[in-house]
Structures are given as C-alpha cells and as structure tokens.
Amino acid sequence: LYRSDLYLSSPGAPSRDVLLVSAIITVSLSVTVVLCGLCHWCQRKLGKRYKNSLETVGTPDSGRGRSEKKAIKLPAGGKAVNTAPVPGQTPHDESDRRTEPRSSVSDLVNSLTSEMLMLSPGSEEDEAHEGCSRENLGRIQFSVGYNFQESTLTVKIMKAQELPAKDFSGTSDPFVKIYLLPDKKHKLETKVKRKNLNPHWNETFLFEGFPYEKVVQRILYLQVLDYDRFSRNDPIGEVSIPLNKVDLTQMQTFWKDLKPCSDGSGSRGELLLSLCYNPSANSIIVNIIKARNLKAMDIGGTSDPYVKVWLMYKDKRVEKKKTVTMKRNLNPIFNESFAFDIPTEKLRETTIIITVMDKDRLSRNDVIGKIYLSWKSGPGEVKHWKDMIARPRQPVAQWHQLKA
C-alpha cells in the first residue's frame, strides 16, 4: 500500500481515476466481444430453424382421405358433378402434427432477436412465403383421387380455417369454385356458408369421363370467394396444384395456404355510354352504346357479355334494366337505351351502377367490370355526371374504364 501510494504520487504516473476508467473500458470490451459471438451463433441457429419452419408451411398433408363408401351413379359424357357429402365420413386433420421442442436459452434469444431476424435477408422463396402468411388469407383442406375403372376424378372440398373478414359485420360468407385448368368455362361450386370464417363444406365433386392421360395435364384450381347478394363476390384466396404432381391412385388429403387471387389484375376493357337528363320529365336516359377490349372470361379467350344497369337512391336499389347477351364478343355493340324516373330533388342522392357481365349457362355469371355514375364517383364519372346536368335534353357520351 505504501509503495502504491508512493507510485501514484510520483511525477508522471497516471492518477487513480485514470486507472479505474481504463479497467472499466477493458472489461466492457471483453463482455461485448463475448455477447457478439453469442448473438452471432444464436442468430445462425435461429435463422436455420426459422427457414425450416417456413419450408414446412403449405406442404401436403401426410394423411390419406377415406375411400368412398357410397356408390353414386352419375351421367356419363365427361361432366363434372357435385354430389352430397358421404354420411359419417370425416376428413383427416393435422391437429396431431408434432412441434419441435425449444430450450429456455433459445426462447430467451428468440425474444431478444426476433425483430432482427424478421429484417435479415433470406431467400426469395422464404420472403414470398412470409409475405403470403402476413396477409392472413387462411388455408383450405381438400382431397383428390382418380378412379381408373370409371375414368372419374374425385375432388372433395372439406373445410377452411382462419379466413379473413370481408363484410362490415366482421365475417364472411365463403364458398369455393372448382376448376380443372385450362378449362375455366366449366366450373363447380360449393354451398355458401353464412357468416363463417372457419367453414366446413364436406362436399364431393366428380369429374366423369376424363381419361387419365388428360387428367394429368390439368391443374386443379380452387378459388375461395365471399358471396355478396347485391354486388360482385369478393375474392378471398386461391390454390392451384398440378395433377401430374399428385399420386392419384388413392385419395390424398392436402392442407394448402390460400394465396392472393391473380385473376383481378389487368385491364377489364372500356364501355361507351351516353346520359341524357330531362329536368321537365324528371328522367335520365342511359344509352349503352358499345364496349371494347373486354377481358376474356372463358377458356376459349372470349366472353358472352351483357350489361346490367341499376338505379340506386341512398344506397337502396330502386330499379334494374339489362341488355341482351352478345355471344363470344370482346367488342360488342349494344345500342340499347333505358329510361329512369328521377325527381330533380333526388338527383344528388342518386347513383347509376353499370355492370358488364359474362353470361354462363352452367354456373354463376362472372363480373367483367363496373362503373359508378354519381356526384361522388371517380373524376371521370363525376365529369360525365356534371356534363349531363349542364347540357339538359342532350345525350352526352363518354368512354369509361371498367373497374373491379
């Protein structure tokens, strides 16, 4: 102690405070190096586990669907038939799937580095899958198999889980459309499950008269939609699976995550129409003139369009008119006029909804696009409405882009 005090008091020697600060800095650097090494090791371990967990999402269920217990005679000729669910038959579930145990150290590091891992770069496949899962579109369970003796493909739509709410009430009215692509003209549909985000359908669909050589060239496409009685059905999500990647010798059951629907993109075409307002007669004449470059809704690369015109007052449907159907025509000429009685004092609360539809004999008609005409629509629609008011008793024509 005496010699230490003497050293500290000698000229040119560092002070006691300087030595204390140097010791603290040395210890801090050592701890930092150790922690950095630990975090780097933990991040690699967790990154590997995170990638493995992503790779397991959306893989086919290992269980097999139960075989049919009920013989169903259906008309031949390559038709797709919807049958009732088999009584007492329950689909295989994945509720018993095992999860990897975690250590307490991993849980602690995971809680400390989760944000860093979410921002760390990964493969394009992982990022794409992660982006789909963040949209919370839910998932669907279905089975598929082929009967070689009867040349029949069987598709069972079982259930869906965690569907997003599409209605203002915080729920949805889901149903499923089934296609065998590239054929989109002939589609089948399940029943609508009212106000249900975890619907159970348990419906069986038979595609008869399909040789196996043609079946393996098709893609099973499922589209989940939210049913709307008065407007266009809202798409929820879709699943597609090439049948040449499936062992069709017996029924197989799959769980698949729903992906965003891709059929809503691209141009839907344009519609030329005229409006004529007669204030003395309290009426508006809507003339549907023609359309151009309509979106092809059928597998043959065409559509069978017709136009519906709804008169709305304060969000209530008052009257509906529609044109004739133009077969296989993406540039139809209609030239049909419809008169609607609208008192002048109700004009500001009036909306005219024009919907271009694709006619389908075997299933629900498809919406190609819509136009909303009123005081409070889009810029082009409002301009047409104001021009109609400013030029009474004169037809005012304008092209409109169809919207989803």
UniProtKB/TrEMBL annotation:
<dbReference type="InterPro" id="IPR001565">
    <property type="entry name" value="Synaptotagmin"/>
</dbReference>
<dbReference type="GO" id="GO:0005509">
    <property type="term" value="F:calcium ion binding"/>
</dbReference>
<dbReference type="GO" id="GO:0051050">
    <property type="term" value="P:positive regulation of transport"/>
</dbReference>
<keyword id="KW-0597">Phosphoprotein</keyword>
<dbReference type="GO" id="GO:0005765">
    <property type="term" value="C:lysosomal membrane"/>
</dbReference>
<keyword id="KW-0576">Peroxisome</keyword>
<keyword id="KW-0449">Lipoprotein</keyword>
<comment type="subunit">
    <text>Homodimer. Can also form heterodimers with SYT6, SYT9 and SYT10. Interacts with calmodulin (CALM1, CALM2 or CALM3). Interacts with CD63; required for localization to lysosomes. Interacts with APP.</text>
</comment>
<protein>
    <recommendedName>
        <fullName>Synaptotagmin-7</fullName>
    </recommendedName>
</protein>
<dbReference type="GO" id="GO:0006906">
    <property type="term" value="P:vesicle fusion"/>
</dbReference>
<dbReference type="GO" id="GO:0005778">
    <property type="term" value="C:peroxisomal membrane"/>
</dbReference>
<dbReference type="InterPro" id="IPR037741">
    <property type="entry name" value="C2B_Synaptotagmin-7"/>
</dbReference>
<keyword id="KW-1133">Transmembrane helix</keyword>
<keyword id="KW-0966">Cell projection</keyword>
<comment type="similarity">
    <text>Belongs to the synaptotagmin family.</text>
</comment>
<dbReference type="GO" id="GO:0005544">
    <property type="term" value="F:calcium-dependent phospholipid binding"/>
</dbReference>
<dbReference type="GO" id="GO:0017158">
    <property type="term" value="P:regulation of calcium ion-dependent exocytosis"/>
</dbReference>
<feature type="domain" description="C2">
    <location>
        <begin position="267"/>
        <end position="400"/>
    </location>
</feature>
<keyword id="KW-0564">Palmitate</keyword>
<dbReference type="GO" id="GO:0030424">
    <property type="term" value="C:axon"/>
</dbReference>
<dbReference type="GO" id="GO:0030276">
    <property type="term" value="F:clathrin binding"/>
</dbReference>
<dbReference type="GO" id="GO:0001778">
    <property type="term" value="P:plasma membrane repair"/>
</dbReference>
<dbReference type="InterPro" id="IPR000008">
    <property type="entry name" value="C2_dom"/>
</dbReference>
<dbReference type="GO" id="GO:0042734">
    <property type="term" value="C:presynaptic membrane"/>
</dbReference>
<keyword id="KW-0677">Repeat</keyword>
<keyword id="KW-0106">Calcium</keyword>
<keyword id="KW-0472">Membrane</keyword>
<dbReference type="GO" id="GO:0030670">
    <property type="term" value="C:phagocytic vesicle membrane"/>
</dbReference>
<keyword id="KW-0812">Transmembrane</keyword>
<feature type="transmembrane region" description="Helical">
    <location>
        <begin position="20"/>
        <end position="42"/>
    </location>
</feature>
<keyword id="KW-0770">Synapse</keyword>
<keyword id="KW-0968">Cytoplasmic vesicle</keyword>
<keyword id="KW-1003">Cell membrane</keyword>
<dbReference type="GO" id="GO:1990927">
    <property type="term" value="P:calcium ion regulated lysosome exocytosis"/>
</dbReference>
<keyword id="KW-0112">Calmodulin-binding</keyword>
<feature type="region of interest" description="Disordered">
    <location>
        <begin position="75"/>
        <end position="107"/>
    </location>
</feature>
<dbReference type="GO" id="GO:0048791">
    <property type="term" value="P:calcium ion-regulated exocytosis of neurotransmitter"/>
</dbReference>
<dbReference type="InterPro" id="IPR035892">
    <property type="entry name" value="C2_domain_sf"/>
</dbReference>
<dbReference type="InterPro" id="IPR037732">
    <property type="entry name" value="C2A_Synaptotagmin-7"/>
</dbReference>
<keyword id="KW-0268">Exocytosis</keyword>
<dbReference type="GO" id="GO:0001786">
    <property type="term" value="F:phosphatidylserine binding"/>
</dbReference>
<feature type="domain" description="C2">
    <location>
        <begin position="136"/>
        <end position="256"/>
    </location>
</feature>
